[in-house]
Design a protein that fits this description.
Blueprint (H helix, E strand, L loop, with lengths): L21 E4 L2 E4 L8 E6 L6 H12 L1 H6 L2 E7 L3 H15 L7 E3 L4 H5 L14 E6 L5 E7 L7 H17 L13 E2 L6 H8 L5 E4 L2 E4 L4
Parallel strand pairs: 3-4, 4-5
Antiparallel strand pairs: 1-2, 3-6, 6-7, 8-10, 9-10
C-alpha cells in the first residue's frame, strides 16, 4: 500500500508568543510586535474578499466593534488578497449595507502571515486562509485559538464570550464552567493541601459540589 507523505508545519500554539511580522493593511503598515500596545488583539483570517460568508463575518465584527473597544481589544483582519481588493470590498459593503470595516485588514498577498500563523492549511485550500481566530493578550502571548473551515461562519457571541472570559479569568484568578457568560458564577481554584481542603469543606461562602469543585459570584 502506497503511503502519501504529508508535510507537517509547525503552527503557533496556546501560550506561545505571537510571531512578529510587518504587513500592509487598510490602515497603513504595521509591525505586529508594536501594534496595539497595552491592549488585547483579536486577529482573524477569512478566505477571500467579495465572498458571501466572509462579508457576513466581517460585517459582524464591524457592527459589534464597540463591544471589543469596551474590552480594550483591537481587531485585525486578514486574507490573501491585495490592498486594492480590500479597499474595494470595504467600499462596496459600506455602499450597499452602510457597514464600515473600521479596523485594519492585512493584505497578505504573499501568504507570509497566513503561513506563519497556520492559517493556510493545504488539505482545506492551498490558496485561501481558513477562518482562524487568534486571541492575543497585551504581552503578545497567544491565549486562545479557533479554527473554522471555509464554508462555516464563526459565532460572534462565542468570540466575545471567550475574550471576556479570558480577561476576567486573568483578573480574578478563576476558571469558567461550561456555558459560562458574564454574571454567572465562576470556579475557584481547587485546594492544593490538606489544610486548604479542610478550609474549603468548612467554607460556607461558596457553592460546593465537593471540595474540588466550588463556585462563587464575582463582586465586580
Amino acid at each position: 500500500m502506497e503511503v502519501t507523505e504529508q508535510k507537517i508545519t509547525t503552527i503557533p500554539r496556546i501560550g506561545d508568543m505571537a510571531p512578529d511580522f510587518e504587513a500592509m493593511t487598510t490602515k497603513g503598515k504595521i509591525k505586529f510586535s508594536e501594534f496595539a500596545k497595552d491592549k488585547w488583539i483579536v486577529m482573524f483570517s477569512h478566505p477571500a474578499d467579495f465572498t458571501p460568508v466572509c462579508t457576513t463575518e466581517m460585517s459582524g465584527f464591524a457592527i459589534r466593534k464597540n463591544e471589543f473597544d469596551e474590552l480594550s481589544t483591537e481587531l485585525v483582519g486578514l486574507s490573501i488578497d491585495s490592498i486594492h481588493s480590500h479597499l474595494g470590498w470595504v467600499n462596496n459593503v459600506r455602499k450597499h449595507t452602510g457597514v464600515y470595516f473600521d479596523f485594519p485588514i492585512i493584505a497578505d498577498i504573499d501568504m507570509k502571515v497566513s503561513k506563519l500563523y497556520g492559517m493556510l492549511q493545504p488539505n482545506e485550500s492551498e490558496t485561501a486562509a481558513v477562518r482562524a481566530v487568534f486571541f492575543i493578550d497585551p504581552k503578545k502571548k497567544i491565549r486562545l485559538i479557533m479554527y473554522y473551515p471555509l464554508n462555516i461562519g464563526r459565532n460572534m457571541d462565542e468570540i466575545l464570550r471567550s475574550l471576556e472570559a479570558l480577561q476576567i479569568s486573568d483578573k480574578h484568578k478563576v476558571a469558567m464552567p461550561l456555558d459560562w457568560k458574564k454574571g454567572d458564577k465562576v470556579i475557584i481554584p481547587p485546594p492544593k493541601t490538606l489544610a486548604e481542603m479542610d478550609a474549603r469543606i468548612n467554607d460556607d461562602t461558596c457553592e460546593k459540589v465537593d471540595f474540588y469543585l466550588a463556585k462563587k459570584e464575582l463582586s465586580n
